[in-house]
């Protein structure tokens, strides 16, 4: 997982390579056996919980002792680097949905996905979406781009100074790549972008960050690069800062900005029989709901056309030790539905800012580690898989909520499961 | 807290009444005593945790047994309405910051605010912001508007049918208010808005929802109203749905949309001495950082000019049983800084979508209840207070991060506290 | 056309009244006679031009002497109020398209619409769109809202001062209505909106402006109101300005802002035979093009989903003496297409910012007056009609360009007609 | 001006080369002589007009016979490619402002800029802005990027097909460059960008277009490329179109989209004495107005922070035969103001979409040609200059309007000059 030699010339646009196509074409999902279904009995008793925990232990062969409450966290030393002024552990109810069948460029197979939430109906709805998908085949998922930015910003006396500074900077790209390599074992500098507005210069340093979500790593590398620049460039800025608020960190920003973390797309064609048997609606009604939705998204000035990917993102991020403050940016999505020539329902979602990590951050805390292990996403080499599970989960949620709304079941479901 | 008679004619714009002005003018913050400071010793040992838990128990006289791990959740019955497919509890490290001194229209006094996160530096940074604020006085906070929407959408054969339908609907506003009263003890229908685009009609039903965050309550009322309309109106839509994706639920949408939950504004003038002693920067540098930030926000197409209110919102929402999937919408903010005639630093933040509840949702779970009680925000009559604490917390974070960036401490802090 | 008594309580949302429905239901378009068709012979000769001028003189009984070059402008006195540093007249090639058949709340009948442009293909394309529409019936057009804003902005020492100021302002609404009446014979003050962000207060004064486009009129009234406020309110702002850049003047702004000038919607159902015979495509292909377009609009961050309404707006505005600098705001549109149960094509466009006038501004200059008279839109009582003709024109253009693109004719047409 | 060998590897970001810096550093503006000032006497008489026409003929040595009305257009043959259904010439009052002193990468020297408008006050205001700028030095203008896009869009059965298609496309970039060279003497293909969303593929073909504005040229080249792809690629799309509505043609789109036409930045530092003597305000007041404006722009969801660049763009485009329908996109701007250490006023504007041409389109019509010649911008090799004059003009307008508003003169000016 350590970084290869740096080459500042990677794909700056979406890309699908031929080995990905082959991998996806050669996958065939098997039917789900009865033994692979999550036991749903006794939803609100200790016994029901135990049934599901046993299912996990036996079916998935992973530990859930901390989630189950059998072990209690007391390793306060491990808090270093993750929190200050610690008083204890907030506890969020957590369940699993699935199996979710994914045929992805990184995630391939069946997954039981943990979600932490206090919103009733949520897991029921995602479970239903996952069922509709797996009864129609597998969700195809392809990662299109990867990149994380810091955007330090420099201000000059005037455009002349700025112009000289930019020229110097662009001649030192390779030095910045070297500084990056020396500062981090994982970060790779892939792009150095220039954005000029009057006497303000924004330099976009774009990295990949191995299997960490990467915000700290890229900050540290960028800081070193900036300090090198300021110390060595003959032209002096009148002010500079490590971040000029254009990186999109912790907030939704323009769709045209391209990528933050990973840009991924996912699709499935739902069989019309399944739309009726599982989702209790028709392709036509679901399609009508989507058309209303996309038109609504335009009217209210939302970024993208997603309905509620934030529910999946927040619940998955809490369970799996991800940065929950990234919910806004990570849930940016374009959701799309069409009826194909067979009368089946083509459903797709594309998300440009799926920012996750499987090392560092909150991934090593007890329940977080257990949740990551549930989906085989703990540790090095797994972040691409986690990101693809995240988008597949979002797609099931988009399908299920629109199905419910199209058929008038939405309110009834919330009256049944919610409070 | 039960609903008063419904009047569909409330303020549709921001408003500050004179009693609020009086309340705020008459408040005088007292100096913080040594005994009121959070013990920060032994940050990463069981002993340090215990010191802080004792401080809470003695200073704040509230229970923290579940947070401390002294009691274990086993009341699975209580999960009904909050989660399905339950397997256990995800545990998120939680700390407190403060005291945060607030002079608000709903929250007035000093507060120790719980935050659940795995991002190192976060609580240290918010603590520093809170300190800079309290050494400069109190954060003024005023709630400007309140309202929660459902936006059912109807499609017609053509504009003629739509026009007849709209006329009928507008003649039945009082009936809708009555249906609302009969459907909920808390919801009040305050506005019925019409948005027409070709043969698509969006009706915005806007409510207040007592002390619940209100998404379910308003869905149920709106569903009943819509069913009444469809059953009684002589003109039939060709399709309708409870939500046409314009309410802004679970996503950031246009700032001009006005309010979702509560629109609140907060301000403080930081003394220049405090900027230097606590924030280790100067008013001039901090102001320069903000100018860069606002200009960056415009350039990257973000909604508003906030830097990272999502950090405060996510950490507070996890700790306090709020809907974390609302992080995107709730963290929408306009952050602003100026230097006043004395050379002090005027700092303000305005947030239109602070959506919180102190009853229902996840508020009654053990650690959530304990966290809410820490800030005296558990139960009826407290949601306005919780919302104002949330924005004050966001303001301290905006100040602290910009201070760090302006003085080049940001990266160093993350290297010290983060991983 | 003079102003009625002022009532600050008009519809703040879209509205269709029953008399509008009746008017539109009772209209029946007659077939277009051969004699009503524009002579298209000799497109690029003096003779062809003469044929078309004669058609106008005989069919429409209006003067076109200045357009024809038979009379030359020399009334320099009349330039006062419209331009400084005058050197002469820029001349823009102008043609007519039509007949355009409209069944609107203000415009009803057939119209030959003047367009001034140097872009080849444009009039040919709009002509084709108009033909497809009239062979399918009439374009239904309904005006939904009217209003023009100035948004003076006030800054205060702090929120306390701002709050006292707002209270005072809201108590003096009726005085502002009186000042408006005294300052203008046409302006009516319909709404006073409050928007607070920290110590900044934006007051939105919303007017109707009779048949003038109204920017000057509303500026003058608002200035008088502001001066009254500042002279009389006991609380003093530290700074104030007549416009804080939120009115949307001369630029596209968020769709959720509601209305600027007039918000109008238009629809037509194109018969599938006509789609094939006139537009040389199929409903299915045209619908596919639109789906791609709306998805493209979302991806590139455009405001609304229009394709090129700006072409119609700019060409009509130049010809008719409107404010061409408003092209950006006025061409904001939501374009929508669907296939109905008969396989016909439902097409709609909704435009919130159609800002036009038929008195004042550039309407009285010689060719501008002639162009306005061509569509019976010169002088008092005609602005509502002009606005509805504008949107109907835009709709024909949206249809025609998408038809061309869907069938691969777009480039060929530009190669034939363009340079 | 013919195209050099095509290299698909140009700067994809802003750039300032060292020869530009040298050119700008070596320029020194001379004081404006009395004889260089536009005669302003007799504003609304034939005599005054004649004085100004003589000034142009003698000072600038260019023809203005058509503008003056001394010659009448009758070359109907020349209309081919520019308009259909021609009936005559719309006439727009036109004046000149200046001298405008520019120190640019393409435009260097003093310019008298023609503007066609019927909005009183406009030329007076731009004149004042130009005066304030020239009394403070020259406006520095630097072109940062150039590019024009067509964004054909392809839809596939599924992601697998799309992936194979993309691979094929990316292997044929050089072929596309060859097709471009064969299809146009001027177009150069500089970039081929890929954007994937589910089964929809948008390919961005980005060109430079010599001195034409280039919309037609790039359409024709892209059409040929697409037809080549569809004829030769083994994978077939289910639908494709020459434009998927993401190129930003005729509408304002996200600032992050980078460039359309030319991205240019301009700056000037206004001396504080000049702010007072010419603009009748103070640096402090003007700066306060700007802060209010930028904050207002954010609040109303406008793209960028410009106040009214559309006024300059529309008036210049009408006079100079540009595509007026591009007013929305071309006037997108970031306007910024700051007070520097001397108390002088730094003013900058950055505009990413200045789309102009000096050959083709409407540039050869009589008055258009005269207006272009007024600023030495007619014919090959001049489009870069015209674009820089456009932005400099916009900057003077931003300064003047904000000055007026900051000092409360705005309304009075409109009462004096407007109607």
UniProtKB/TrEMBL annotation, chains A, B, C, D:
Any one of the GO BP annotations: coenzyme A metabolic process
Signal peptide: none
EC number: 1.1.1.34
GO molecular-function term, one example from the UniProt record: hydroxymethylglutaryl-CoA reductase (NADPH) activity
CDD domains found in the cross-reference section: HMG-CoA_reductase_classI
Top enzyme category: oxidoreductase
Pfam family, one: HMG-CoA_red
Record family assignment: Belongs to the HMG-CoA reductase family.
Name by which UniProt lists this protein: hydroxymethylglutaryl-CoA reductase (NADPH)
Organism in which the protein naturally occurs: Flavobacterium pectinovorum
């Amino acid at each position: 997982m350590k970084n290869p030699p740096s080459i500042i010339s990677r794909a700056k646009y979406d890309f699908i390579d031929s080995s990905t196509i082959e991998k996806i074409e050669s996958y065939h999902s098997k039917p789900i056996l009865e033994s692979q279904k999550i036991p749903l009995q006794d939803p609100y008793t200790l016994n029901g919980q135990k049934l599901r925990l046993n299912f996990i232990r036996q079916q998935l062969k992973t530990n859930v002792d901390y989630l189950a409450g059998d072990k209690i966290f007391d390793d306060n030393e491990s808090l270093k680097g993750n929190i200050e002024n610690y008083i204890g552990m907030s506890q969020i109810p957590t369940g699993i949905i699935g199996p979710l069948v994914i045929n992805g460029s990184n995630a391939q197979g069946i997954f039981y996905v943990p979600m932490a939430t206090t919103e009733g109906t949520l897991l029921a709805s995602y479970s239903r979406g996952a069922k509709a998908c797996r009864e129609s085949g597998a969700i195809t998922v392809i990662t299109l781009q990867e990149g994380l930015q810091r955007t330090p910003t420099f201000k000059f006396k005037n455009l002349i100074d700025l112009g000289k500074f930019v020229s110097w900077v662009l001649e030192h790209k390779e030095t910045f790549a070297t500084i990056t390599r020396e500062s981090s074992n994982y970060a790779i500098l892939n792009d150095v972008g220039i954005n000029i507005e009057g006497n303000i210069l924004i330099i976009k340093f774009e990295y990949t960050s191995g299997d960490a979500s990467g915000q700290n790593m890229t900050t540290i590398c960028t800081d070193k690069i900036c300090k090198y620049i300021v110390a060595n460039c003959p032209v002096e800025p009148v002010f500079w800062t490590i971040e000029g608020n254009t990186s999109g960190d912790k907030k939704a920003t323009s769709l045209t900005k391209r990528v933050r973390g990973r840009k991924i797309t996912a699709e499935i064609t739902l069989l019309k029989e399944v739309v009726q048997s599982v989702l209790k609606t028709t392709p036509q009604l679901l399609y009508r709901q989507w058309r209303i939705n996309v038109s609504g998204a335009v009217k209210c000035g939302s970024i993208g056309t997603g309905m509620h990917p934030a529910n999946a993102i927040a619940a998955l991020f809490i369970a799996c030790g991800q940065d929950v403050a990234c919910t806004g940016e990570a849930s940016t999505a374009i959701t799309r539905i069409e009826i194909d020539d067979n009368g089946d329902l083509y459903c797709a979602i594309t998300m440009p800012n799926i920012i996750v990590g499987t090392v560092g951050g909150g991934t090593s805390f007890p329940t977080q580690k257990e949740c990551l292990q549930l989906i085989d996403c703990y540790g090095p080499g797994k972040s691409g898989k986690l990101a693809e599970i995240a988008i597949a989960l979002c797609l099931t949620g988009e399908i299920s909520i629109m199905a419910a709304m199209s058929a008038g079941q939405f309110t009834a479901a919330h009256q049944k499961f919610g409070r």
